[in-house]
Amino acid sequence: MESNQPHLPKKSSSFSSSRDEKYREINRNLSLGSIKLEQSYEKKERHDQETIEEEREEEKATKEQEEEKEESNAEEPEATLLTISEDIDRFLRLLLAVEDGQDGSHEPPEIPESTVEKFVTLVEEEIAKYETGEEKWPSGDDELSLLDAIDRVSKLTSAVAKFSSEPKYNEAMNHSGSVLHHAMCFLEDEFHSLLQDSRTKQEAASSSSRTKQLPSLIYRFHEPERSASPSAESTPCESSQAYIPENTERLHRIADAMISAGYVTECCQVFSIARRNAFEVGLPSLGFEKVGIEDVIKMAWENLESEIATWVKAFRHTVTASFTAERELCEAVFASHRAISDRLFLAFANGAIIQLLTFAEAVTMTKRSAEKLFKVLDVYEAMRDVLPTVEALLPDDGEQDEPSVFADPKTEISSLRYRLGEAAVAIFCDLESSIKADNSKTPVPGGAVHPLTRYVMNYLKYACEYKNTLEQVFKEHKHAEKPSSFDEDRENSQTGGGGDGDRNSNSGGSDNYNPFAAQLIEVMDLLHSNLESKSKLYKDLALSNIFLMNNGRYIAKKVKGSPEIHQLLGEKWYRKRSSDLRQYHKNYQRETWSKLLACLKDDGLQVRGSVAKPVLKERFKSFNAMFDEIHKAQTSWVVSDEQLQSELRVSVSAVVVPAYRSFLGRFSQYLDPGRQTEKYIKFGPEDLENLIDELFDGNPSSSIASRRRT
Does CATH place domain 599-709 in 3.50.50.60? Predict the structure, then answer.
């Protein structure tokens, strides 16, 4: 049985040795791995140690460099705007050379970042120092230094912006642009403060504590708050002239800096607002307050007269004084920019004139009446007289560098002046209507000067004080046909075209036709006709002639007393009216004293060679009654002109008294002495003279008989 079981194989010696070799190999590999790991650890430790040593050496080197740098900085002066500006200038020249292609390279230079950074930072710190009020921005070298630095920031920003595609310039461009904007806000505020400061240098020194204003850079499309609170406390003229030269020069430098940096709009806006406010605040110091058109139209004439007088003063002062000073200020502040100076002055002048002309325009819209003529002429003359000044100060349209968006003040003044001239002519011509409308049927008591005569002549006397102006406006606006009577009335007249020295007068043609003189003659003729009609209202022809004498003498006296009226009417007209006066005088004597003198005639007194006593008695009786009646009536008549009154009394006495004395001397002897003489001879020659001297006093008298009884 044992022989049938299979035999198990035995391990051979070779198999055992193979396995042992594997074990030994594994052990050997493990040993080698351990050795390699140890070697790796050792190598890493050595590397780490070397790294640490290198870092220590670098730190040491860095520290040494910093120490050297600190030592170097301690030895060298601290960088300032002045010292670092030279580096900035060199960099700017490099940029300009690249831009112009002068260096043969199109690659922009490397930007000195530390230098640029330090420079703009210093500028910003300098501005902040003055903004916070820590220090007052001084004038002189320090001011120029800061302005120069700001100018470099502007140039730097502009220069690097041309290389905006270069990434390396972006940071410098952003920083310099931010600082530039900050600088412009600062300069704008300083500009505004200087413009408002029209006081003394000592007061200007306190401006460091001023309240800051929001710059218009922030509110570009909104008017700054400063426009609502003007602070200049001076007249329009003084507000421009009161700037001390030092401040004017600072304004000029700041304006140049802002304009060079491209902030023209902001600079001009601040200047315009400040100057406009100064003008508006200055107007009340001249007595003129802004009044709306409707308020002017509704204003009582007494108040409007005063307002017009004040306006004329303010308007003349504004154009002749304020405009000249404002022009000088604009030219001083914007000396480097003539076009800007012209534009700003034109804006100022336009605003000021439009504001003032609004009032004048309202005056032309008021209801016309005769008494308004003189104030209308005052306004007209003010505009006429200032126009040459405006023309001299403002450039012609062809001289302007660019089209103006403003209305031309010269055109505005000329247009309104033309309308005022039309109004003046219309008002004066309305005088004819006033004369025609005076058709009262009630005679003036005592034959005195009629109120219409006084009104017209006083009106003409006052109007002819504006003779040259009225001649001018009539030649401009009165184009009526020359009346045929004009040449006759003007023959031998001394009047010509316009007044002497009136630059606006013209001859109106080759002849001496003067529309105003013709209109004046027409008014006088119309007045004469009106007075003759009124004289017919008196039932007593003698009184009618006294009325004509009174009015004629009043007119002649006014004409003679006014060289302007006398010149316009002419000598021949005056002689003709004087002749009329003499005729009225003759008519009066004929109507009054001829009948009385008829009682003293010899006719009918003698019958068959002897005096008829009854007839003589009747003659004395008639004379006494007639003289008593004349005396009673004519003592109530009025001759207010003392010379005319005396002339009338003398002329009456010269006719009546000698005739009565002669009659009395020849016929008194035929009356029985005593009661008969007293009954019929009631007056002696001297009595008549005294009684005649009582005539024309305007004092009603009782009859002579009743006076004798009392």
Answer: no
